[in-house]
Amino acid sequence: MIFISGTLSSSFQLMLCCGILYTYAFGAVASYYSIAIACTILPLIFVAVFFRAPETPVYLLKKGLRSQAEMSLKTLRGSQYNTTRELHSLQNELTKQSQGQTSFAKALNRREAKYALIISLGMMVFQQFSGINIVIFYSSKIFDAAGSTLKAELCTILVGLAQVVSTLVSMVLIDRAGRKILLQVSATSMSICLLVLGYYFMKKDRGDDVSSMGMVPVAAVIIYILLFAIGFGPIPWMMSGEVLPADIKGVCTGIAVSLNWTLAFLVTFSFQMLTSTLGNSGTYFLFAGICACGLLFSTFVVIETKGKSLQEIQDELAGKA
């Protein structure tokens, strides 16, 4: 499981991208109210299907329901799967955790816990401050403002499709190439694309003739999306699960996710204010600079977790490896 953890963890980002593409495609041909209804149908389907999902074996073992935990494992692994060894391993891990249980504040005082939390929160910060939600939510306005020759609706569908395709590519690469290199490529490429976008709007806003550059913003946005989705899209989500120690993982993952969506709201909410204050070009140059900082963070702070067990990761964070 260690060697496919990246692929499995990337499925979260893939579902996000599929949802965005679904909304873009439906929004191109339907009214606002129809989109709302269409987006309501999917959660209802999910609720109906999820009733058949098994409870997690770890939760059942915590509750002392060993026979139900065995049934859950067989549902997840297959009816012919021998659950004895895995159940024994899970039970030993839970026993070890309960014996070494300590307060959250004390657990967070360990070097590896602090380092892991810095990585988790830092990744969420740079994911949102890369400007991804601005590009997604305002893509049609970006293309309209740029004077693109393609219809804004078609451009946004291309953006959504680029996200899905590149996330699929990321799922293949992430357990082969590693996390750090994908983050570094992602941050570098996003910074360049935003610089190109900023340069285009700088020329346009000062009255230069940009009629021959109509495809530049479209290409910059699509490449930006492609490279975001192979690195800073999926990897921050999986990093929390990979680097955080087991005894603080639940609380710290909640903190990281809350920070992510809070920043998503703040960045999206402030976009209009930023463009009014800094102009279109200044706004994109600002986010390009933040992506460059994300490159430095990925290079000097984030550790490589590819193919490593949780214990090996914790030893490296603690400075023992």
From TrEMBL:
Membrane topology (UniProt): Multi-pass membrane protein
Stretch forming the signal peptide: none
Residues that span the membrane, as ranges: 7-26, 32-53, 115-138, 150-174, 181-202, 214-239, 251-271, 283-303
Compartment list: Cell membrane
Domain annotation Major facilitator superfamily (MFS) profile: ranges: 1-306
GO molecular function: transmembrane transporter activity
Tagged with keyword Electron transport: no
PROSITE patterns xref list: MFS, SUGAR_TRANSPORT_1
Protein name from the UniProt record: Major facilitator superfamily (MFS) profile domain-containing protein
